[in-house]
Design brief:
By secondary structure, this protein is an alpha/beta fold. The protein contains 13 helices and 16 strands. The strands form three sheets. It has an eight-stranded mixed beta sheet, sandwiched between helices. The chain has a six-stranded antiparallel beta sheet with strand order 12-13-11-14-16-15, with helices on both faces. Strands 5-6 form a two-stranded antiparallel ribbon. α6 links the parallel β3 and β4. The protein is globular, with a radius of gyration of 24 Å. Bound molecules: adenosine-5'-diphosphate, aspartic acid and magnesium ion. Magnesium ion (MG) binds next to loops.
């Protein structure tokens, strides 16, 4: 069985929902289909939550009413028969009444997660109703019964595997199984989510859990491009990536994939294909275990990075110094991305800034601490095995006019990373594209 995930734009209008329905039923094969919320909905639910946090029920109600009108207008466009129009309208009335009920309660992060979950709950109900109206033998599966995170907020893979296989055993013979992306329960049974863009993660977790034949991520672009198409002009799709190359690109900012979604697919050895809903016959990108030697594949950028430098002529390189430094980050559950050491100092980067001040205070015990905020990691991915000569030189040569704060090379065979100021992000990405991918 294949797992197909459709993102927000792919189900963003009634017409797109119809197109997706046609696409998933065209070959008659049974599929597990993961859906995001309609595009813009999760952002609107975040906005509603912001008003509720600020104890502004009128503000929240205005946005809820506007969203309700939009959804209600989709009903007439999507369904043919009065029966399905009425059923879906009734479902949406209950949904929006439920959202309005949050204006009357004390609003915490727990309520926020319940509010955010409604986008995927609405889109999956609407598409399943459409499929049923069209006579497709389809089943709506509740992600809250199958996807769970553990006490560290990491997916509980054994649970997901057990529950998804149980679900298929108990519900044999459907053509289409529809499930919500993004939403899950946490270790305490509360409604939670896999963070923004998390539907990709749901698809890869489920694909790995049921040992799918393939995981397909359908979005609004023809696969992984060799640079960020939102910033650099004339980027090109990359036809094939190794799991590790894709994992690095996703983690270091290629928005087409959730940062950690490739890991489960990689461990299960299930290939991931990135495809374009707006151009279904385009080849897209296949992510698998094959490695193409001698090729630089793509560049990505991760924003919002802080760089912390600790200098200590006395203690650095003394046994255990780095351990003590890293333990401070561990205490504050802050993971480190890049590390560079020298005789008298060490620099590290982090993207979680929530405990930065506490970390800095503790690091001061060990030396002089300098912090640069508003930095960007630029990651070049491909065959960067140290046995090759020339590729890292080409990447460095491209940046000859850019002030580079840190360089990290040799951590894996697939990556060289540069840390630059946020203001230099665009020229850095452009310079790398014109040097590494020139025709
Ligand atoms: P979805 O809603 O389907 O999950 P996303 O907006 O999350 O879609 O991801 C697709 C978008 O990712 C593209 O429209 C594109 O602007 C952006 N993107 C950023 N970097 C890349 C890249 N290297 N290759 C392809 N798309 C990228
Ligand atoms: N709807 C969620 C979001 O907008 C999850 C997703 O689309 O992947 O982040
Ligand atoms: Mg996405």
């Amino acid at each position: 069985m294949k797992v197909l995930k459709f993102g927000g734009t792919s189900v963003g209008t009634p017409q797109r929902m119809k197109d997706v329905s046609r696409l998933i039923t065209s070959d008659g094969e049974s599929k597990l289909v993961v859906l995001s919320a309609m595009s813009g909905t999760t952002n609107t639910l975040v906005e509603i939550s912001d008003y509720l946090y600020k104890k502004n029920p009128e503000g929240a109600n205005t946005i809820i009413n506007r969203l309700e009108q939009k959804y209600m207008s989709h009903v007439d466009e999507l369904y043919q028969t009065q029966e399905w129009k009425e059923r879906t309208r009734q479902f949406l009335i209950e949904e929006f009444d439920y959202l309005r009920s949050f204006t009357k309660v004390h609003f915490t992060s727990f309520e926020e997660k319940v509010v955010l979950a409604q986008g995927e709950i609405m889109s999956t109900n609407m598409v399943t109703n459409y499929l049923l109206e069209c006579g497709v033998n389809s089943l709506l599966v509740n992600a809250l019964d199958i996807v769970r995170t553990d006490k560290n907020a990491e997916p509980d893979f054994n649970y997901i595997k057990e529950k998804s296989n149980e679900m298929f055993n108990a519900n044999k013979g459907y053509e289409i199984y529809i499930i919500q992306g993004f939403i899950c329960r946490n270790a305490y049974g509360e409604i939670d989510n896999l963070l923004r863009g998390g539907s990709d993660y749901t698809a890869c977790l489920l694909g790995a859990a049921i040992q799918a034949e393939e995981i397909q991520i359908w979005t609004d672009i023809d696969g992984m491009h060799n640079n960020d198409p939102r910033i650099v002009e004339h980027t090109e799709p990359v036809r094939q990536l190794h799991f590790e190359e894709a994992a690095e690109l996703a983690y270091f900012g290629a928005k087409i994939l959730h940062p950690t979604c490739i890991q489960p697919a990689k461990f299960a050895g299930v290939p991931v294909r990135l495809l374009n809903t707006m151009d279904p016959s385009a080849p897209g990108t296949i992510i698998n275990n094959e490695f193409q030697p001698g090729v630089i594949k793509a560049v990505a950028a991760k924003d919002g990075i802080a760089c912390i430098q600790i200098q200590s002529s006395r203690m650095l390189l003394a046994c255990g110094f780095l351990r003590k430094v890293f333990e401070i980050f561990e205490t504050y559950k802050t993971s480190i991305d890049m590390v560079c050491t020298s005789e008298v100092g060490v620099s590290v980067t982090v993207d979680n800034l929530s405990h930065l001040d506490d970390i800095i205070d503790e690091l001061k015990k060990y030396g002089t601490v300098n912090v640069d905020r508003d930095m960007v990691i630029i990651c070049v991915v491909g065959d960067l095995n140290s046995k090759n000569v020339g590729f890292e030189t080409q990447a460095c040569q491209a940046l000859k006019d850019i002030p580079v704060r840190m360089i990290s090379y040799g951590g894996s065979n697939h990556n060289i990373s540069f840390l630059v100021n946020a203001s230099d992000k665009k020229p850095t990405l452009q310079a790398l594209s014109s040097t590494l991918f020139k025709k």
